[in-house]
Write a structure and sequence with these properties.
The complex is a heterodimer.
Chain A: E1 3-6, H1 12-21, E2 26-32, E3 35-42, E4 45-50, H2 59-63, H3 69-81, H4 88-94, H5 100-118, E5 125-130, H6 148-156, H7 161-167, E6 174-177, H8 181-185, H9 192-198, H10 207-214, H11 218-230, E7 234-237, H12 248-251, H13 259-270
Helix pairs in contact in A: 1-6, 3-4, 6-11, 10-11
Chain B: E1 2-10, H1 16-23, E2 29-32, H2 37-42, E3 49-58, E4 61-67, H3 75-82, E5 87-93, H4 100-111, E6 118-123, H5 133-139, E7 148-150, H6 156-173
The chains are: A alpha+beta, B alpha/beta.
Chain lengths: ~270, ~180
Amino acid sequence: MALVGNIRDFGLSDFLYLVDRGYKTGGLHLTHEQETALLFFEKGKLVLASRKPEDEKADLLVRLGLIEQAQLDKARQALTSSSNGATLMQVIIDQQIADQEQLQTGLMTHTEESVYGLFGWPEGEFRFEQNQRPDADSPTMPVPVSVENLIMEGVRRIDEWGRIKDRIPSTDMIVKFIDQPGEKAKGVKLAPEEWRIFARINGKDSLAEIAQKTSLSDFDVCRIVYGFLTAGLVDVMKKPRPMAGSRGAQGAEPPRVKKSLVNRIINRIRGM
Amino acid sequence: MQTVKMVISGAVNAGKTEFIKAISEIEVVSTERRATDDTKMIKKETTVAMDFGRIAIADDLVLHLFGTPGQKRFDFMWEILSEGMLGLVILVDSTRPETFRETNRIIDFFVSYRDTSYVIAANKQDRPNAWSPDELRLALRQPPHVKVLPCVASERDSVKNILLELLYVIQEKSED
């Protein structure tokens, strides 16, 4: 079953987070005006990104200068004669037609450029076809890449409060690391300004206090923390209110109820 | 006579009215008054949509179900409704990702400052392209301990299941 929507309402960063945390496999089809893009994921990691249909074929490897045409032809021939369900990239690597590391680096650069541009789309329809995989002839990356860096880069391009405020409604909120930030942060590359904020996170200071200590604007701090949040590195929470405020819902604690009362309701609903 | 209250909330068209209608023993009281164009120009606050249902538990105990107005401008009503509530069902239209942000705002309103017992009902699971409960959990950034349950609000058994799951959450927090 496909997941459909518009990135205006459910951002690309949010979708990448879902794919990552849900270990999703499938193809994400994006359309914005006359442009299209296709991203393939394998168990939450990105294996291919293309902005043009011709980039979904292994000829891309020749265009990027990663292999010669003759090498590609040889690999395709080997693929045709193989019957073990291997992909072209597996044949290229297994038969040492090209160096895996060079292929990875070259394709990674191409992939990043393809994906980063998508974050500039203000809106666009998306459709995620679960379990759709690239053709055997596709230039997939030898090692699937984690999407956390892509998410961070995408968030760096956000320049509007609206989306940030969905997750960070106030600068009074405090930031804390999630359980194992060291492990999660391993693959994420941070810019110097981001490190300044990262180093200030202590689970006690509010965003406003972090802004004050780093001399960065509230917006910059919120934008950067939003990035950490979207990449799953940190969590934000509200400071407990010292007294019941003007908003009634936040003031009173829910009543303690008796188990016997709950059991009576459960029995009644079961019997309906 | 003791009354207890559960609140059914969610974005516009999440299925709140249908949910309450499916389980209520009385004809659901829906307060929906459409403003005339003239009234809208003068005072926007004249349209409010709320639902009220009731289940008699015993002679001395009644469960009231309140559906909150979905529109953002009525969030003052959410405060009033949430006072003293036993638990909360957050309904999500699983086919409309454009409502997920609003759903998050509603969850945040009800649960961020207090220990509210709640479950999320992933409604319209019978429709094509419905996001699964697991996908909704990720989309709404809900932690693993929060129940995100499949739901078809027009089906009584499905609604019963949601209420029971919520009651099990409340049961765990209740005192002997």
